[in-house]
C-alpha cells in the first residue's frame, strides 16, 4: 500500500467507523453466530499475492461485523463497560504511526516523558495522594500498564521481592551471595497474598504468577460484601497459626460482582496492630470504579484509603473514555518496582539510563517493549477536560440510579441485592410465593427465584436487544445491569427496564 492508497483507505475506514457508531443503537448487541462461524469464510491459507484494500475492507462488513459483540452499543449493559471515544481512536492512530517499543527513555523520549506527565495529571485528576506523583520526595510515580491484571501481578511481584529482601537483609546476609539466594528461596513457600472473596480473580492469578500462596477474606451479604477489619484480622491470625506470612493484600474499590468498597479505615487500623502486619503491601484495585474519582463528590474515597497504601490502579479503558489498553498504575516508591524488575544486560544500557536521571519504563512492568499509550490519554484529557470527564461519570451514575429506582418501583417483581453503586444495579427476580409473603429481613436463598432469575437473564441475552450479566451473589442467582457505557441515554435505560419487566411477565406466564 503506497501513501496515496493509504490516504484513500484511511478516509474510507474512518467513514465506515463513524457509520458503525451511528448505527449501533439499532443493532442487536449480541451476534447470532455459532462457534466456528468464521473459519469456513476465510481461505485455508494466507494469500500468495497481496490483495486490494477494497476487498479487505469489504470483509469487515460481511465477515467481521456479524461476529462482533457491540460493547459500544448503548444497549450493552453487561460486565463493566469498555469505553472508547474519537480522541482516543486518534491517539491509537498516531501511536501506530510512531511505533516504537519504547522500553528505555532513549528509545523515544516523548513516549516516556508524556507518560510521566499524563500519569501525574491523572494522579491529580483522581485526587490520589501526592505520594504517587513522579515529583514526590518518596520517588513515587505512575505507569500505564496493559490491564488491571498486569497491574496487580506486577505489584505482587514487587511486594514479594521487597518482603523477602527486607527479611534476608535483616538476617545479616550479604546480597549476591549463595546464602542470600538460598534464604530468599526458603522464605517464599510461607508467603501468602490476600484479597477478599469478592476481589477480582486477577489477584488469585497474580499469586500464581508470583509463586506464592493465596488466601481470601470472607465477606457477608449483611456487610454489603465489603471486606471488614474483623474478617481480615481473623484471616491474619489464622495465617499466623498456620505458619504463613502475609506479604500483600488487594483492597478493592468497586468489586466486580457488586461494586462494593472494602472498609479501608477499619482495615488500615487492623494492619497497624502488629509490626509484621505493618509490612504488608497494600494495593487498591479500583479497575472500574476508580474513574468516579474524577468527580469531587467521590474523592472522599481516595482520602479514606490515602495514607498507608503502596499502590493503586484504575482502568481508563473501562469507564473513562480511553479504549483498551490504559490501566493507570501508581506506586509510592518506584524503587520497590525497579529493584524487583530491573535486569540490565549490556545491550540495554545507554548513557542516559546510566545517569539515573531518566525513567526507563521497562523496569516498571513485566514485558520489555511498550506502546505509546500516553497519547490517547493526553488526547482524551485535553478534548474532554476534567469537566467533560466528570460530566460523563455523573451522567452514567445518574442513569444507573434511575434504573435502580425503576427496579424499586416494582417490589412485587424485583429485589435489589446490594447497594446500587457507580451505575451498577444487582437484582434478582422474586418468586411469586416470595412476593406474596411478608417482607423478611435480609436476602434469603430461594430456589424458585434462582430459577426465574436465570431464565429471565438467559432469554434477554438470547434475544440480544440488550446485554446484561447473569451472576451469583453470596449463593443467590442475580442479574447485573451497568449504565457506564459512553453512548447510554435515559431512553435506553427505560427500555432495558421495560424488557426486564416484559421478559419476567412472559416467563412467569409460562410457569403458571
Ligand atoms: N479488577 C476489577 C475490580 C475488575 O472488575 C476487573 C475486570 O472487570 C479487573 C480487575 C480485571 O481487569 P483487566 O481486564 O484490565 O485485567
UniProtKB/TrEMBL annotation:
Cited SUPFAM superfamilies: PLP-dependent transferases
Membrane spanning stretches: none
GO terms classed as biological process: amino acid metabolic process; carboxylic acid metabolic process
GO CC terms: cytoplasm
Alphabetic keyword roster: Decarboxylase, Lyase, Pyridoxal phosphate
Transmembrane helix among keywords: no
Highest taxon of source: Eukaryota
PROSITE patterns reported in the protein's UniProt record: DDC_GAD_HDC_YDC
Cofactor field: pyridoxal 5'-phosphate
Residues bearing the modification N6-(pyridoxal phosphate)lysine: 318
Protein family per UniProt: Belongs to the group II decarboxylase family.
Name of the featured protein: Aromatic-L-amino-acid decarboxylase
Organism in which the protein naturally occurs: Monascus purpureus (Red mold)
Amino acid at each position: 500500500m503506497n501513501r496515496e492508497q493509504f490516504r484513500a483507505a484511511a478516509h474510507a475506514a474512518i467513514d465506515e467507523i463513524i457509520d458503525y457508531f451511528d448505527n449501533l443503537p439499532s443493532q442487536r448487541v449480541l451476534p447470532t453466530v455459532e462457534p466456528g462461524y468464521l473459519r469456513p469464510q476465510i481461505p485455508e491459507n494466507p494469500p500468495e499475492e497481496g490483495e486490494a484494500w477494497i476487498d479487505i475492507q469489504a470483509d469487515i462488513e460481511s465477515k467481521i461485523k456479524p461476529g462482533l459483540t457491540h460493547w459500544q452499543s448503548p444497549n450493552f449493559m453487561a460486565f463493566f463497560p469498555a469505553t472508547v471515544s474519537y480522541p482516543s481512536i486518534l491517539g491509537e492512530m498516531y501511536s501506530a504511526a510512531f511505533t516504537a517499543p519504547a522500553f528505555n527513555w532513549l528509545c523515544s523520549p516523548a513516549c516516556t516523558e508524556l507518560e510521566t506527565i499524563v500519569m501525574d495529571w491523572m494522579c491529580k485528576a483522581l485526587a490520589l495522594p501526592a505520594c504517587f506523583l513522579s515529583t514526590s520526595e518518596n520517588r513515587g510515580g505512575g505507569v500505564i500498564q496493559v490491564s488491571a491484571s498486569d497491574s496487580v501481578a506486577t505489584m505482587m511481584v514487587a511486594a514479594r521481592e521487597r518482603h523477602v529482601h527486607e527479611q534476608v537483609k535483616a538476617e545479616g546476609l550479604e546480597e549476591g551471595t549463595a546464602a542470600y539466594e538460598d534464604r530468599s528461596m526458603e522464605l517464599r513457600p510461607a508467603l501468602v497474598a490476600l484479597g477478599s472473596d469478592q476481589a477480582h480473580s486477577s489477584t488469585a492469578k497474580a499469586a500464581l504468577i508470583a509463586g506464592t500462596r493465596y488466601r481470601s477474606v470472607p465477606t457477608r451479604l449483611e456487610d454489603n460484601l465489603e471486606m471488614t477489619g474483623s474478617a481480615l484480622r481473623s484471616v491474619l491470625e489464622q495465617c499466623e497459626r498456620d505458619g504463613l506470612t502475609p506479604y500483600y493484600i488487594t483492597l478493592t474499590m468497586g468489586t466486580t460482582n457488586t461494586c462494593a468498597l472494602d472498609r479501608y479505615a477499619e482495615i488500615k487500623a487492623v494492619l497497624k496492630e502488629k509490626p509484621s502486619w505493618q509490612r504488608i503491601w497494600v494495593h487498591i484495585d479500583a479497575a472500574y470504579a476508580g474513574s468516579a474519582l474524577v468527580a469531587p463528590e467521590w474523592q472522599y474515597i481516595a482520602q479514606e484509603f490515602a495514607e498507608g497504601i503502596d499502590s493503586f490502579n484504575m482502568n481508563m479503558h473501562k469507564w473513562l473514555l480511553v479504549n483498551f489498553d490504559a490501566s493507570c498504575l501508581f506506586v509510592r516508591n518506584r524503587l520497590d518496582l525497579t529493584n524487583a524488575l530491573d535486569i540490565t544486560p549490556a545491550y540495554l544500557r545507554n548513557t542516559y539510563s546510566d545517569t539515573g536521571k531518566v525513567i526507563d519504563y521497562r523496569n516498571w512492568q513485566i514485558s520489555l517493549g511498550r506502546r505509546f499509550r500516553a497519547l490517547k490519554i493526553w488526547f482524551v484529557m485535553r478534548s474532554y477536560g476534567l469537566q467533560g470527564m466528570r460530566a460523563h461519570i455523573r451522567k452514567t451514575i445518574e442513569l444507573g440510579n434511575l434504573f435502580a429506582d425503576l427496579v424499586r418501583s416494582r417490589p412485587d417483581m424485583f429485589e435489589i441485592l446490594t447497594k446500587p453503586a457507580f451505575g451498577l444495579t444487582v437484582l434478582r427476580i422474586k418468586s411469586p410465593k416470595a412476593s406474596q409473603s411478608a417482607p423478611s429481613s435480609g436476602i434469603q436463598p430461594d430456589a424458585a427465584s434462582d430459577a426465574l432469575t436465570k431464565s429471565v437473564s438467559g432469554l434477554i441475552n438470547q434475544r440480544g436487544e440488550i446485554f446484561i450479566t447473569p451472576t451469583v451473589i453470596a449463593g443467590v442467582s442475580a442479574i447485573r445491569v451497568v449504565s457506564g457505557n459512553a453512548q447510554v441515554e435515559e431512553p435506553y435505560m427505560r427500555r432495558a427496564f421495560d424488557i426486564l419487566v416484559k421478559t419476567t411477565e412472559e416467563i412467569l406466564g409460562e410457569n403458571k
